[in-house]
Amino acid sequence: MEKANLKNLELTEFTGKGDSGQHCLATFPLFGAHGTESTATVYFELEAGDTLGRHTDSAEELLLVLEGEVEVELGGETGPLSKGEIALVPRMVPHNVINTGKTKAKVLGFFGGANNIVATFEKTWLPVNTNVVDTSTLDD
């Protein structure tokens, strides 16, 4: 059985090049390198005021807020999402997640229909120095 403990994940710190407000700690707990065939997950944390950054994903995504309060920008819409709420992000629709609360936000994203995901951000991420996150290039 493949499993991931969300309380004990190795998170990588990312910051937007030229934009310190685009900042998160993130990882992919389960995806193709772990043996999934048609799903993947992403976990990220945002400090108060931080943003994930506007981007598109190659697969449909469900965003589940585990802790905190965020605002989700989706296409031309913007709306709040808080602990226990889920939002649907259609494939290739530009979106962003912003922590609008006073505490750390923790979000788990579920991708359907693909075990490898390509996320393309408007801004480059540091320390990886790219705006593309492709799980097919990530190690187990």
Explain what the structure shows:
- The chain has strands at residues 12-16, 19-27, 39-46, 55-57, 61-67, 69-74, 77-82, 86-89, 95-99, 105-112, 118-126, 130-134.
- The protein has 140 residues and is an all-beta fold.
- The chain has one domain (14-122): Sandwich (Jelly Rolls).
- A hairpin with a 2-residue loop joins strand 6 and strand 7 (77-82).
- The two termini are 15 Å apart.
- 30% of the residues are buried.
Q: What tags apply to this protein structure?
A:
140 residues; mainly beta; Jelly Rolls; three-stranded antiparallel sheet; nine-stranded antiparallel sheet; globular
Compile the SSE list and pairings.
Layout: E1 12-16, E2 19-27, E3 39-46, E4 55-57, E5 61-67, E6 69-74, E7 77-82, E8 86-89, E9 95-99, E10 105-112, E11 118-126, E12 130-134
Antiparallel strand pairs: 1-2, 1-11, 2-3, 3-10, 4-11, 5-8, 5-10, 6-7, 6-9, 11-12
